[in-house]
Amino acid sequence: MKLSILGCYSATPRTLNNTTSQVLEINNHMFLIDCGEGTQVQLRKHKIKFNRIKHIFISHLHGDHFFGLVGLISTFRLLTRETDLHIYGPKGIKEIVTLQMKLADSWTNYNLIFHELTSTKSELIFEDEKVEVHTIPLNHRVYTNGFLFKEKEGLRKLDINAVEKAKINVAYYRKLTQGFDVENEEGELIKNETVTFPGAKPKSYAFCSDTMYKEDIIPIIQDADVLYHESTFLEQHAHLAVRTKHSTAKEAARIAKKAQVRTLILGHYSTRYDGIEGFKKEALSVFENVELAEDGKTFDF
Amino acid sequence: MKLSILGCYSATPRTLNNTTSQVLEINNHMFLIDCGEGTQVQLRKHKIKFNRIKHIFISHLHGDHFFGLVGLISTFRLLTRETDLHIYGPKGIKEIVTLQMKLADSWTNYNLIFHELTSTKSELIFEDEKVEVHTIPLNHRVYTNGFLFKEKEGLRKLDINAVEKAKINVAYYRKLTQGFDVENEEGELIKNETVTFPGAKPKSYAFCSDTMYKEDIIPIIQDADVLYHESTFLEQHAHLAVRTKHSTAKEAARIAKKAQVRTLILGHYSTRYDGIEGFKKEALSVFENVELAEDGKTFDF
């Protein structure tokens, strides 16, 4: 899994700060998460091939998370894209995009498939053989979802010594890797876990922005390898976090700790501060493994 | 008059090319003309004070001319703007903006006044004591207007020798500068032009983008000091200009020549070419005074 941060600042794009957008590479997918104004230029800067993006996930309809979407869709059209594009986001997103296409008399030549979200419970919204994406209902000023990207359990590995000793026919090896119990050549039932090892641990990434501190999300993101949690404010502005339904760095860390994630990445910083080191410092007082998102930074995990 | 080019490329924003937007300073106004994605960042780069922009003119609803508008409006809100903002553009622009404000539950705390355009004839759409703005109906794939910015005739200058010789009372001097004939102290009617000089010649700027070659605009832009005319293509792609309702550099120059403007500025270049010098070369074969718009360039005239 590789995460590329295209933008991680709140509110408005600036000369050196981009608003929220990131690309998650997982099992050959390139998922675009949020799409602030200027995202298409950030994608070019990072040399991310437009055609590899087939799924875009929009957390909520505040401008700093989606004002770049219609431009990206339009650019895909101008570049004569043919690949389907799936858009997951709050109800209304389809109307916003199609109204602008209608008034510009510029419909896409590729399939644009909207998956509008309305549920306030976690839903499975994407699934293939290897990956699942679930929503994470958040608590912000408008309807907002985070997204949990999860690899599925991979194949188990054979314990060759044990398999041979148990006299299992080679024809059953594939069933064993899939986790089934099988009969050996003497008709005896062999328990799968006695002759296989677990496969590689599936990885998971939870994106949670924008949201106020919300413990309800903990069961959903429990044990995630990486949690990106917004931290718009430092403690000195905790009152603003409450008023605007955002989180402080410490609150993000508290969620990370309670959910026992491996790594916490902070982002969605207010631009009122000189530098972002303060966010890390405050979060580290609660949770030990904290990283700072920065525009242009990539994380491999 | 000062013109700042924020972006002058067609189709899509790129790492080094911005889509259409420019700021015209004229008689203490700062008029923003078109607003492609990323315009707010370009305004910051040029250190143009957001609050000085009170009027935005949008030529048409193709993305490269207005996808930055909703973000700019939203940023003005976040910066707690109080000044009224007037938006002039094709019918539909209000719905696009307000739909997004509604879904984001983020209404402006300043007055946002839409002036939706539908006429296919030139109209006076803004006027104060010193400046007028008229539409220039263009011919593109969707409803499009250029804009003519004109200073009004200024006060005439007194020919002091002639005035004294004509025995005109000082009380009438102001009327003379306003162009009226007046009676002298002997009750004789004095023709204004015999005792005054013309005031400074009022300046004018015509913005014409996007459009195919259209001679109907010539009477509207006749004698303009500066004409910005789109030139998306070079001659080798003249067939594409026809098909997409754009102009070539030569066609832009032909309009400039027939309208007897002083200076032609070319822009809205397709990014298919290596460099933009070819546009100037081709236009110069038709019209002698050609300038090239470039992102970040300013013109004083």
TrEMBL record, chains A, B:
It catalyses: Endonucleolytic cleavage of RNA, removing extra 3' nucleotides from tRNA precursor, generating 3' termini of tRNAs. A 3'-hydroxy group is left at the tRNA terminus and a 5'-phosphoryl group is left at the trailer molecule. SUPFAM superfamilies: Metallo-hydrolase/oxidoreductase (SSF56281). The active site is at residue 64. GO terms for molecular function: 3'-tRNA processing endoribonuclease activity; zinc ion binding. Keywords: Endonuclease, Hydrolase, Metal-binding, Nuclease, tRNA processing, Zinc. Its cofactor is Zn(2+). Zn(2+) 2 binds at residues 64-65, 210, 268. Zn(2+) 1 binds at residues 60, 62, 140, 210. It comes from the Bacteria. Binds 2 Zn(2+) ions. Its EC number is 3.1.26.11. InterPro entries: RibonucZ/Hydroxyglut_hydro (IPR036866), RNase_Z/BN (IPR013471). It is an enzyme of class 3 (hydrolase). Homodimer. Belongs to the RNase Z family. HAMAP family: RNase_Z_BN (MF_01818). Zinc phosphodiesterase, which displays some tRNA 3'-processing endonuclease activity. Probably involved in tRNA maturation, by removing a 3'-trailer from precursor tRNA. This is Ribonuclease Z. It comes from Algibacter luteus. The gene is rnz.
